[in-house]
C-alpha cells in the first residue's frame, strides 16, 4: 500500500465514526464495550471515538502529519509489537495509527479491559480496506516483534524493560496531569477544568489529578463551577470509590474539602485516587516552577489559563490531544523511522 492509501483508509474510518447514519452501530459498539468494562459508558466511548475521528482521522490533518514528520514509503517494513493499555476507550489507537502510517506491521496485544472496542475498530478498518489485514495483526504473543511499544504501570514497565531489552522499544510508565490555578480563572474556565478532572472518570494519564493553587486560595468558586458534574455519582463504580475514599479521610481525620462527589485533599503526591483530587499551595512563580520541575518525569500535561508551561493546554483540552501530541513527549514516528 502507498501512503496515500493509508491516509484515505484512516480518513474513511473517521468519516464512518462521525456519520450520523452509523449512530446505531456506534451505540452498539459502546454497549459491547461497556459489557466488558463498566467504566466504558456510552458517553465515554463516543467522546473517545469522536475525538479520534476529529483530531486524528481528518484527511487534511493526516496529510499534514505525514508531511510534518517526513513519513515516506517504507520498502522494508518491520514488525512492531504494541502492548496496549485499557484505562480509557481505545487509548492505544494513536500507537496503532503511527505504526501503520510509517509502513510497518502492527502486532497488537489488546488489553483485557479494552479488547472488544479496539477489535471492532480494527475490523472496521478491514471492512474499509481489506489490504490493511497485512499491516495489523492481533496477537497474544509478540515473540516476532522487531521493536516494541508498551504502556503499563511502573511495575509492569520493569518487566517490559527486561523482556524487550534486546530490541528497540518505547516503554511508558504511570503518568498523570496537573492544573495550575492563579485565582483569576473565570467560572467557564473552571467548568472546563471540571472536564479535565472528570472525563473518563479520571482514569486517563491526561486527567488532572493535582491542582497547584496560590497560597490562600479558596475552593468555593471552583466547586460552584463544576457542580454540573454532580451526576457522575450516579455511576456505581465511581460512587463506590467516592464513598470508600471519603470514609478513609473521615476515619483518619484527614483535613479535606467535599462537595458530595469530589474530595479535595492537600497532598504533595501527584497521583490521586478516583473521586479525589490533590492540591498543593505555591508561594510565587519561582516556587511553582520548582514544584512542577520536581515532578516533570511524571507529568503528562499541564492545564492552565496562560499556558506558560511546556506541554500545557487550555482548560478543557487535556482529553482532546492532537495527532502531534505524543505520549510522554516521545515522538513515536521518529522512533519508528529509526528501527
UniProtKB/TrEMBL annotation:
Pfam families according to UniProt: LuxC
InterPro entries per record: CoA_reduct_LuxC
Keywords: NADP
UniProt name for this protein: Acyl-CoA reductase
Amino acid at each position: 500500500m502507498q501512503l496515500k492509501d493509508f491516509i484515505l483508509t484512516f480518513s474513511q474510518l473517521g468519516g464512518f465514526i462521525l456519520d450520523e447514519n452509523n449512530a446505531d452501530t456506534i451505540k452498539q459498539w459502546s454497549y459491547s464495550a461497556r459489557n466488558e468494562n463498566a467504566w466504558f459508558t456510552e458517553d465515554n466511548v463516543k467522546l473517545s471515538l469522536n475525538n479520534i475521528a476529529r483530531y486524528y482521522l481528518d484527511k487534511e490533518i493526516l496529510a499534514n502529519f505525514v508531511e510534518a514528520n517526513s513519513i515516506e514509503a517504507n520498502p522494508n517494513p518491520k514488525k512492531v509489537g504494541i502492548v496496549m493499555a485499557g484505562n480509557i476507550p481505545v487509548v492505544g489507537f494513536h500507537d496503532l495509527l503511527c505504526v501503520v502510517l510509517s509502513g510497518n506491521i502492527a502486532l497488537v496485544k489488546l488489553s483485557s479491559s479494552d479488547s472488544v472496542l479496539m477489535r471492532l475498530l480494527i475490523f472496521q478498518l478491514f471492512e474499509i480496506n481489506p489490504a490493511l489485514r497485512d499491516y495489523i495483526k492481533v496477537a497474544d504473543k509478540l515473540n516476532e516483534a522487531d521493536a516494541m511499544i508498551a504502556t503499563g504501570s511502573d511495575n509492569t514497565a520493569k518487566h517490559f524493560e527486561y523482556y524487550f531489552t534486546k530490541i528497540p522499544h518505547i516503554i511508558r510508565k504511570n503518568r498523570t496531569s496537573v492544573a495550575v490555578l492563579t485565582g483569576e480563572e473565570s467560572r467557564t474556565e473552571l467548568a472546563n477544568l471540571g472536564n479535565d478532572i472528570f472525563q473518563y472518570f479520571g482514569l486517563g494519564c491526561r486527567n488532572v489529578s493535582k491542582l497547584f493553587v496560590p497560597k490562600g486560595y479558596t475552593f468555593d468558586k471552583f466547586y460552584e463551577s463544576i457542580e454540573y458534574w454532580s451526576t457522575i455519582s450516579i455511576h456505581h463504580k465511581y460512587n463506590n470509590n467516592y464513598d470508600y475514599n471519603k470514609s478513609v479521610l473521615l476515619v483518619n481525620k484527614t483535613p479535606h474539602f467535599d462537595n458530595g462527589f469530589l474530595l479535595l485533599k492537600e497532598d504533595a503526591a501527584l497521583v490521586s485516587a478516583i473521586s479525589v483530587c490533590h492540591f498543593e499551595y505555591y508561594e510565587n512563580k519561582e516556587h511553582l516552577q520548582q514544584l512542577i520541575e520536581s515532578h516533570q518525569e511524571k507529568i503528562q500535561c499541564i492545564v492552565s489559563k496562560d499556558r506558560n508551561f511546556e506541554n500545557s493546554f487550555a482548560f478543557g483540552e487535556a482529553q482532546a490531544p492532537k495527532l502531534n501530541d505524543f505520549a510522554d513527549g516521545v515522538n513515536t514516528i521518529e522512533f519508528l523511522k529509526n528501527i
